[in-house]
Structure formats: C-alpha cells, structure tokens
Design a protein that fits this description.
By secondary structure, chain A is mainly beta. Chain A contains one helix and 19 strands. Chain A has an 18-stranded antiparallel beta barrel. Chain A is globular. Helices cover 16% and strands 47% of the residues of chain B. The chains are: A mainly beta, B alpha+beta.
C-alpha cells in the first residue's frame, strides 16, 4: 500500500467517523453589556493631542459615548464551546453612514458599519487529560493586575488544574510584520507564557510566572524576559495581595539601538471590611530609566503596545483621570497611559472606600497620587510629582443588571507638569463629571 | 424430542395456571361530571383526584391515563338543594360495564368521607370481578407474572415518552383548589418582602410549625398554624447578602439556624438560635458556606465548604460541627465535576450503592456512579435561581464591563428516606446570561430505576418564580415559596408560601 492510498483510507475513515458523531444539543449562551457615558470635562475626550499638550487653557466640553458588547457562546457540550464577542462603539455626533466605521456611527443618520470582532476562540477540554485549552483571539491578562499586558490577543493557552495547582502555558502572536496586513511569519512579535498558581489553603494563594515577549520585527530587537511572583492572602478581616516582577533581556527599536534591560515592578494592596463598606489601599512601583532608554542599559519597566492604544493598565487603582479607567471607551485618556510611562516608570499610591448605603445605593471615594519613578528627557520639568486625584461616585441600582452612576474626579497637578503645556504654559488641573448607565447581563 | 416438547408444554401450562389476580388492576378515573355546583371545573378535578387516591390500594393502582388502564371509572356529582349524590360507573378498557356504585350525603362536609365510601364500594366490586377474571376482551391486559416477564405492559412501549416521564395527570398537574379543600393544601397570605430562601424548624406543641424566610438582608421567623405569624425579624447590614439558610437541632437541644452571608466578596456567615420569641446570634464571621442536608435520605447533617482567594468554592464539602463559636470540619466528601455544596445530593439504589446527583451549570441533572463517573443526565433542565453572589474579577472586568463575576445559587436537591429525589425547577420568560427573571416553578420527584431517573410526580406550575422549596417528610407535605411581587425601586416585594400534601 503506497502512501497516497493509506492517506486516502485514513481521510475517508476520518470523514466517516466525523459524520458518525451523534447529533448533540447546542446550548446557546448570551452575555453582553451596554454603557452610556455623558461626560463633562476639560480633559477626557476621544480627541488628540494627548495631555498635556492640549491643556494650557482647555475649555469645558461635553462628550457622550456608548458601547455595546454582545457575547455569543455556542456550547456543544461541557467540554467544547465556541466563544464569540462583538463590540459596537460610538461617540454621539461622530460619523455616520459610509463615512463611519470602527468606533463610529453616532453621527446623524447613524447606519455605519461599525461592528468589531473582539474575540473568537475555541474553549475545550482535551479528552482523557486535565488540560483545558483556549485557542483563538481571546482576552488575556498577566498575573500582575495587567501592568504588563491586559488586552485581546491571538494565541493558544493551555491550563491544567492539578489539585490546588493551576498551571498555564501559552503562546500569542502579537504582531506579524513588516506590514502586518500580509503576515509572512518571519518578522513577528510573540508572547510566551508560563504561569502557575497554587492554593496552599483557602486563605493563601502563591503564584509564579515566566513571560517572554520577543519582538523580532526588526530581527531580534527585543527579548523581554519577565519573572514574577505573586500572592494573595486573607489574614483576619484583611484581604491582601502582593507581587514583584523582574524584567531582563534586550530592548530597542532596531538591532543598532537595542540596550540591555533590567527593570522591575512591585505592588502591595489590602482591603478590609470597615463599618458599612470596604476600605482599600494599594501601592505600585514600576521602575523607570533616567536616560529614557538611550543609555547603555534600560531600567524602564516594559509593556508591549497594541494597535489600539495601550495594552497595559492598572484598573484596580479605581482612578478616573490619573490612570486609565476601566469605564473609558473612545475617550480612553489618562495622565499615565502605561506603567512604562514614557520610560519614566511610576510610583502610585491609592486609598479608597466603597460603601453600601442601602440595598441599592452605593458610594465610593478614592484618592491617588502619582510620581514618575525617574526623571528623563521626556520629563520637561524638575519634579517627579505628577499629581493627586480625588474622585467620588454614587451609584444606584435601577435594576439588578442596570446601574446608574454619577461621578466626579479632579486632579491637582504636581510640578511635573509645570510649564509643560503649549507655549510653556502650565496645564489646568483636569476634572471630569459624568453620568453613566451600565447594563450588563 | 417428543419428551422435550411434552415437558415444555407442561411447564407452559403451569405458568398459565398462575392466577391472573396476582397483579394489581390498573384503574383510571376519567373526568367526573359536576351538576348544580359553582366552580364546576375545580370540583371536577377535585373529585377526580380524591377518588383516584382513595381507590389506590394493594389490589388497585390508580394510573394517569386511559391507555395504561384495565378499568376506567367515570362519575357524576349532583347537588340538589343541600343533598348530593356521587354516582360512579366502572368499565373495562373495551367499554364493557363492570360495576356501578353511588353514595349520598346531606351537606358539603360529608363529601370527602362519601368519596372514601364510594371508593370502598368500587374496590370491593372490582376485587370480586378480578377474582372471577376480567371479561375476555380485557384478559390480555391483566398479564400473569410469567407473561409479564416476557411482554411488558403495552404503555411502556407505545408512548413516546421522554427519558424523564411525565407524571400522571390527575394527581398533581390539574389545578386543585387547595384553599377551598384545606384537607389537601394551604396557602399563606401575602408576606412582606420578596424572600429568596426558606428553612423549616420544629413543630411546636400547639401544632404550628417554625418557618424561617430570608431575603437579601433580612431573616424572618414565622410560626405557621392557621396563618403565617411573624414572630421575629432581624435585619443585616446592607453589605451583607444572605445566600442560604438552614436549620438543624443543636447540641443543647435548641434549633440552630445557619445563615450563609457574603460581605464584600468574603464569607461572613452567622449562626442563630430561637430563644422564646426572639432570634439570637450565637456565632458570626464564619468563613463557610453552610447547608443542612440528608444525604441519600440519611440523617440531617450540617455541611460546610470554604471559598478560596480565587475559587468560588474551595476544597471538599465536609461535615461540620459547632463547638461554641468554632466550626470543625471532618469526613470530607469527594464531589464529581460541577459539584458544590449547593447543587448536589446522594441516593442509594436497591443494592445499597451510593450515587451522586448534581445540577450542572447548564441546568442538567447528572447522576454519577460511586466512582464519580457520569452515568446519566437528563434531557430536561432543572434548578434555576435568581439568587447570586458576586466575586471580584478584575481580569475579566475589561471585557465584561463588570467588576464582578456572578455566581448563581441553585435549587436544592432533596432525597427522602425512601430515596425519592426531589428537584426544583424554574422556567422563565427572560433568562439570558446574568439577567434572570423566572416566571414559574415546579417540584419534581424522581426515582432511580437502575439506569435512569424516572419521574414519579411533579407539582403543577406555580404562577410565580419559586425561589425555594422544602419537603417536610415527617408530615408528607411540600412547602413551596413563591415571589408574588418582585422587588422594585419603591417596594421590597412580597412572597407567599403554599403547602401541599403529597399523596
């Protein structure tokens, strides 16, 4: 029997086996959300340029933006499902009709082609093994609250629960150049992931990771090796978590200018029930580089950047202007957009309190201060102190799934931004008030 | 060869000689006519149900459809002035008259005993007929055991029944006015607050029963006699959400109420006791989910499970004992896939093997063998609860837009001493992702037939969401909690409790 015949027989047998699989009931599962923000601010909108260039004398503006997401899961069995996730974003008054597009369609007439495919992936268990796989374009976050990567990635991730130990191995292709529109698989940006998390007791979890971000777009320009440890514990009434991560390797935008990398980040956070609510506090440090990456070594904590804005965040800060807010949509603008922070690094302290006033009414207050970890050529002032944000919100549950929120935030800018706006002016303190409706199901 | 044939014929003759009446006669009570009464439809259904249940005996089995029956009983209920008469006619399935009987009475109070008398008369006549053998046309329907072993009753094969069989129609499905005939059921008045949970306490010397109801932030202590009387109520912190309430007799002989509470993403459970007419907390800040259950119909025990830093339910479910304010865990149970403290129970088969039963996240009822391998799963969905807790999930927050993941509780699975399995089921008009709004509830009773669960009965659907139920085995009564008005912006909603005698 030659190889072709054998292959034909195997193919035919496979096809027969495939069509012999008994018809299975398909479970259809839907989730989704709708969010509307009505913003009045001198800072937050979807326009360019970024802070602080446009903030010498910003006028108060009103922006309305909305986002709907629909998630459909086709569940064939307990062990196999296809997950799809779509998004429609618009700012009221942007563009409509044929002039619309991704993130648009809120102009008069609407009717824009603006459906975005956010995630499409298979989620399945490999038979006779404890291995669970997620293969395709999916959401992924590091084990460090997103300060390295928290974004949608195309990749394959495999995890296994072995008693209290959860291990994950994965690969994601972040870029394929040089044009990206026509992938050739030679000049790529890839992410390799090894994660482990072990629950020692119900009150103590320890984890460790190794990530490699290899930017081969210009033939091995960057190899960011990241090793981290993380822990979460509950001691008495206090829930705590902490992590530390070191990055080493080489970074640069070309072979000629690549530098040795040695950077680190660390965070501690605590939360405790106090009176009618919960008190939160956290401190994050991410190293910066005083040569802005131009010296012999780069000490700035690295975050790969995606095609759509920043791919890292620290949403647990609960800040609205100083750090990226999880509720931001098209107007995703913050004073610190990444923990790399233009190679300046970051020192961030936060304190917050969430209160349940009644069954439906809640309130939250937060304060946070931010400093550059290092001054460098991007820092056009003599100070590292970026500012302190104060924010407060009141939310009311109209229904179990629909919450109306009124919030306001104000940043007292630090000397880091003194005389840094257009024509050497000092930017005005950013502020924002908003009414937000959040529906999630 | 001839000797073999003779021997076989002789054996066949012996088998044929086994008396036909060794099997029960299957009787179906068809529609009863009602003349001269108000609420005709309700009265018809009531009489049908009453006569069916009273005909049931060791010789007669009331079945749910004419197709299954050897004998079909029809009847008429006539009221003239205060006097009434109930006349019944029993026919074979082929339509041949077997017997007639009637009873009379002079007031409505005599109706229920009169139906009993009528059933006795019919039973006696049917027994006589059986002893003499059913008319030829029907003889085949009453199989001898030997024949039965070869040829199963026709209905098992003709009816295209789903794997989970439907209950006989007259016993539980048809609306029966329990309030008007309070020998069969009871319905509370409107109770303030949309309760999520229910637990049953002791029966007091005056015959009343202790009942505990809880909504998100309140625990209420009622005594159910003729009415539901609110005895005590305790209100919890707004940050507290009650996820379960269960009762068990404590070490000191008093009743203990285990209240599972989630507060700011952490378990913060409490234990309460009834002291006279008051509720008194005896332990708090307990980091456990609690459930009191009779696994495999055994004695009621307290079980606990912890929550992890990341896991919603951490580790094994274990037996729990209280010593002062300290909870001690022992005898951990290994649960199958999907099993948590709130969605499982166990039952035993005739050989004493223990099986585990779980409602999976999609609502399917799954039976696992003693080695925890899946044996069977239902085609229909069961369970369903609007009660949930939230756990902070910052990883998915960017995608879902929600800071929390929602973890829904489920309907309890109860197993009786006879190893009958009770499961609640809610159906809804709008159940989509985390948006749940159930409209109707039912309780199903199953028995394990060696290869699958077979339905024994189910209650008719409630007209409202049924957040919880409990089968009081000592009284053979099923208690069904209903939310008759949901919570709204300006209202805390309302509940009601119905109690049905399981016959």
């Amino acid at each position: 029997m030659n190889f072709k015949k054998a292959a034909a027989i195997v193919t035919a047998a496979g096809a027969l086996a495939a069509i012999s699989v008994p018809a299975m009931a398909l479970e259809n599962e839907f989730h989704g959300m709708y969010r509307l923000r009505g913003i009045m601010s001198n800072f937050q909108n979807a326009g360019a340029p970024a802070f602080p260039a446009d903030s010498a004398d910003p006028k108060t503006m009103t922006v309305f933006e909305q986002r709907a997401r629909l998630q459909y899961t086709a569940k064939v069995s307990d062990d196999l499902k296809l997950i799809t996730h779509f998004e429609m974003d618009s700012s009221w008054g942007d563009n409509g009709g044929a002039t619309g597009g991704r993130g648009l369609g809120g102009g008069m007439g609407a009717d824009s082609v603006n459906l975005e495919t956010k995630n499409v992936y298979l989620d399945f268990n490999i038979p006779s093994t404890p291995v669970h796989a997620k293969v395709g374009i999916q959401a992924w976050s590091d084990a460090y609250k997103g300060i390295f990567i928290n974004d949608d990635l195309a990749g394959a991730f495999f995890d296994a629960n072995l008693g209290g130990l959860k291990t994950t191995a994965g690969f994601a292709r972040l870029q394929d150049g040089p044009s990206n529109a026509n992938p050739v698989g030679q000049k790529t940006g890839d992410l390799y992931v090894l994660d482990a998390k072990y629950s020692l007791t119900k009150d103590l979890t320890l984890g460790g990771s190794y990530y490699l971000y290899r930017n081969d777009m210009n033939y091995k320009t960057s190899d960011v090796h990241m090793v981290g440890l993380n822990a979460a514990a509950k001691v008495g009434p206090v829930a705590m978590d902490a992590f530390a991560a070191i990055q080493a390797g080489e970074v640069g935008t070309s072979v000629a200018n690549k530098k040795d990398l040695l950077a680190f980040a660390a965070q501690v956070a605590a939360k405790a029930t106090v009176g009618p609510g919960a008190l939160r506090a956290s401190f994050l440090y991410a190293s910066g580089d005083n040569n802005n990456g131009a010296g012999s070594k780069n000490h700035a904590f690295q975050n790969p950047a995606g095609y759509v804005g920043s791919s890292s965040n620290f949403y647990s800060s609960n800040l609205l202007l100083l750090m990226r807010s999880v509720y931001a949509m098209d107007s995703d603008k913050a004073i610190v957009m990444t923990t790399n922070n233009a190679n300046q690094g970051l020192m961030l302290g936060t304190l917050g309190f969430d209160a349940n006033i009644t069954d439906k009414l809640g309130a939250s207050v937060n304060a946070g201060f931010g400093l550059n970890a290092e001054r460098n050529t991007t820092t056009t002032s003599n100070s590292k102190y970026m500012g302190t944000e104060l924010n407060a919100s009141i939310n009311y549950k109209l229904f179990a799934n629909l919450t109306a929120t009124l919030d306001g935030a104000y940043v007292i800018l630090g000397d880091r931004f003194k005389n840094t706006a257009t024509a050497g002016a000092t930017p005005k303190d950013p502020y924002m008030t908003e009414v937000m409706l959040n529906y999630a199901f | 060869m001839k000797r073999w044939i003779i021997a076989l014929v002789a054996l066949f003759s012996i088998l044929c000689a086994v008396p036909a009446f060794a099997a029960q006669v299957r009787v179906f009570v068809a529609d009863m006519n009602a003349i001269g009464v108000q609420n005709k439809e309700e009265m018809k259904a009531t009489l049908q149900m009453l006569l069916s249940s009273r005909l049931n005996s060791d010789k007669i089995i009331a079945v749910g459809s004419a197709a299954e029956a050897d004998v079909i009983v029809t009847g008429t209920y006539v009221v003239i002035g205060k006097v009434f008469s109930v006349d019944a006619l029993a026919k074979t399935a082929a339509g041949k008259t077997i017997t007639r009987a009637f009873v009379q009475g002079e007031s409505q109070n005599e109706l229920i005993p009169a139906v009993g008398t009528l059933a006795d008369k019919l039973s006696a006549e049917l027994a006589k007929t059986l002893a003499a053998g059913l008319p030829p046309a029907d003889a085949a329907a009453t199989l001898s055991p030997a024949q039965g072993s070869l040829s199963a009753p026709t209905s098992d094969f003709i009816k295209h029944e789903p794997q989970v069989r439907k209950a006989p129609v007259p016993e539980f499905i048809k609306p029966v006015d329990y309030e008007r005939n309070n020998s069969s059921g009871w319905q509370s008045r409107r109770l303030n607050g949309a309760a999520n949970l229910m637990a049953i306490g002791r029966t007091l010397p005056d015959g009343s029963r202790e009942i505990f109801l809880a909504d998100d932030h309140n625990l209420s202590y009622y005594r159910q006699g003729g009415e539901m009387k609110l005895v005590a109520k305790t209100e919890f912190n707004n940050s507290d959400k009650i996820l379960s309430i269960d009762t068990i007799d404590g070490n000191e002989g008093s009743l203990e109420i285990y209240v599972t509470i989630m507060r700011d993403n952490e378990l913060n459970s409490q234990i309460w006791q009834v002291k006279g007419d008051k509720l008194q907390m005896i332990a708090e800040k307990l980091p456990y989910f609690f459930r009191c259950a009779s696994l495999a119909g055994g004695p009621k025990k307290l079980y606990a499970q912890a929550m992890g830093r990341e896991e919603d339910f951490y580790g094994d479910v274990a037996e729990a004992t209280r010593n002062g304010t300290v909870i001690t865990l022992k005898n951990p149970l290994k649960l199958p896939r999907f099993g948590t403290i709130y969605n499982f129970n166990q039952f035993r088969d005739q050989d004493g093997k223990t099986y585990t039963l779980v409602i999976n996240p999609d609502g399917y009822l799954i039976v696992y063998d003693p080695q925890l391998k899946e044996l069977w799963r239902s085609n229909d969905k069961f369970g369903g609860s609007e009660l949930f807790f939230q756990k902070e999930d910052l990883v998915d927050q960017r995608v879902t837009g929600d800071k929390y993941r929602w973890v829904f509780m489920n309907q309890r699975i109860q197993v009786t001493a006879k190893n009958e399995i009770l499961v609640g089921k809610n159906d809804g008009f709008w159940v989509l992702g985390n948006a749940r709004s159930y409209k109707k509830g039912t309780v199903y009773c199953f028995v394990w037939r060696g290869s699958s669960l077979e339905e024994k009965w189910h209650t008719r659907e409630t007209q409202n969401y049924m957040p919880d139920y409990y089968f009081d085995e000592s009284r053979n009564e099923l208690l069904m909690l209903q939310v008759v008005q949901r919570r709204g912006v300006t209202t805390n909603g309302a509940s009601s409790l119905s109690i049905k005698k399981v016959e």
